[in-house]
Every structure is written in C-alpha cells, then in structure tokens.
Amino acid sequence: QVQLVEPGGGLVQPGGSLRLSCAASGFRFSLYAMNWYRQTPGRERELVAGINSAGGSTNYADSVKARFTISRDNAEEMVYLQMNGLEVEDTAVYYCSVRIFGQAFWGQGTQVTVSS
Predict the structure, then answer these.
(1) What is the band of 109 on the pLDDT scale with cuts at 50, 70, 90?
(2) Are 14 and 88 contacting, i.e. CB atoms less than 8 angstroms apart?
(3) Computed over its alpha carbons, how large is the radius of gyration of the chain?
(4) Rounded alpha-carbon distances, angstroms, from residue 108 to 44, 59, 88, 102
(5) Taking all residues of the chain, what is their mean pLDDT, rounded to a whole number?
C-alpha cells in the first residue's frame, strides 16, 4: 500500500533552516508528481511546493518562493523540502502528498515550529 513517512520536523529560530524529508513506498515513485502541504489550526491545508515526476519542474506558493526548495531522488524514492529563512508564519504541520488516479495520499505530518 502507499506509504509516505516524514521524519525531520522540529523547532527552529526565525531566520534558521530545516530540511524535511519524505520516504515513499508502495507505488511507482518515479511516475508521479509529489507535493508538500502545510496546515495550521483553523486553516485549510495549503500547497507549499510541488515537483513533477522527473524533478525538472517545480512550483511554489508565493509565500515561500525564494526561501524553500523542493527536490526528489527517484532512485531512493525520497522527496525533500529545504526551508531557509524560516519565519514564525511558517509554523505548521507539514505533509508529503501524492495523487494517484485521482486519489490523494498523505503522510502522517511533521510539526515545524519557528520560534525564538
């Protein structure tokens, strides 16, 4: 079955950096676009970044452009989110996601807290 596992969250000071990772299994990873979402209490889950199956095309929410970078390793079936210049407003639970034949699959989420 499809599994997405995201270790790597944590507490970081404003201006700091953090790298999230997502280990995928149970599907042909190299065939599918991958996305990172985030959610804060009381708000809808929002798309942060996406990457196509080959890794050559990416897209970002305006709020994270020039600060976050999504990447993937198809051989290792991993997707990453490098987050630089973190702001308090980036505090959220971050989720790795894939859509397969119209169905969305989600990881368990990892908490990122930006605070001094």
Answers:
(1) very high
(2) yes
(3) 13
(4) 16, 23, 22, 20
(5) 96
